């Protein structure tokens, strides 16, 4: 048997989607987002295949209480452009957290996912809520804790 071949596992489509819940309260933004991106890509599973969606859904609660280190609260800028001349708008982490706290976590995770159709499909499997309440109790999510 030739051992120079990469093993690609066959996906079992009968598997039920897995649901996880992560509390972002007093957690560092980068640490929590890398964990979420790794789980979404399926790198924590036994049969990881890079081009397959492993049907993992993640619920993130308390997004308004996520933290950053140092002076990033005031120095980190989020930019968006309207497409019109002179339409560039910037706002700091603090301003965006007061206005739309979910967008901070969503934007960080989206940058860590693969670019292309698979990354767009994985991004739809993230549910971010700014408080502790979420409508996914029926899925019985498993709790993941950091430190």
The named CATH superfamily of the domain at 18-69 and 102-143: Ribosomal protein L13
- In one word, what is the shape? globular
- Which CATH-level-2 architecture of the domain at 18-69 and 102-143? Alpha-Beta Complex
Q: How many strands? A: 6
Based on secondary structure, the structural category is alpha/beta
Pfam family, one: Ribosomal_L13
GO cellular component, one term: cytosolic large ribosomal subunit
GO molecular function: mRNA binding; structural constituent of ribosome
Family: Belongs to the universal ribosomal protein uL13 family.
Q: Which features does this protein show?
A:
147 residues, alpha/beta, Ribosomal Protein L13p, Chain: A, four-stranded parallel sheet, two-stranded antiparallel ribbon, 29% helix, globular, plastid, ribosomal protein, Ribosomal protein L13, mRNA binding, structural constituent of ribosome
Short description:
The chain is built from five helices and six strands, in the order E-H-E-H-E-E-H-H-H-E-E.
Map the helices and strands.
Elements: E1 18-23, H1 29-41, E2 56-61, H2 72-75, E3 77-81, E4 88-92, H3 93-99, H4 101-112, H5 117-123, E5 126-128, E6 142-144
Parallel strand pairs: 1-2, 1-6, 2-5
Antiparallel strand pairs: 3-4
Descriptive overview:
This protein is α/β, with parallel strands linked by helices and 147 residues long. It has a domain at 18-69 and 102-143: Ribosomal Protein L13p, Chain: A, CATH 3.90.1180. The protein has helices spanning 29-41, 72-75, 93-99, 101-112, 117-123, and strands at residues 18-23, 56-61, 77-81, 88-92, 126-128, 142-144. Strands 5-2-1-6 form a four-stranded parallel beta sheet, with helices on one face. It has a two-stranded antiparallel sheet with strand order 3-4. The radius of gyration is 18 Å and the shape is globular. Keywords: Plastid, Ribonucleoprotein, Ribosomal protein.
């Amino acid at each position: 048997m030739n051992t120079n071949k990469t093993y690609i596992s066959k996906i079992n489509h009968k598997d039920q989607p897995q649901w996880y819940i992560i509390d972002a309260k007093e957690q560092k933004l980068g640490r929590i987002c890398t964990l979420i991106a790794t789980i979404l890509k399926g790198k924590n599973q036994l049969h990881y295949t890079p081009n397959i969606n492993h049907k993992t859904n993640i619920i993130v609660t308390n997004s308004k209480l996520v933290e950053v280190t140092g002076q990033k609260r005031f120095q980190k800028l989020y930019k968006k452009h309207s497409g019109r001349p002179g339409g560039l708008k910037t706002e700091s982490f603090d301003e965006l957290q007061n206005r739309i706290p979910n967008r901070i976590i969503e934007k960080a995770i989206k940058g860590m996912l693969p670019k292309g159709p698979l990354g767009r499909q994985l991004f739809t499997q993230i549910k971010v809520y700014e408080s502790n309440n979420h409508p996914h109790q029926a899925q019985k999510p498993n709790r993941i804790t950091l430190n």
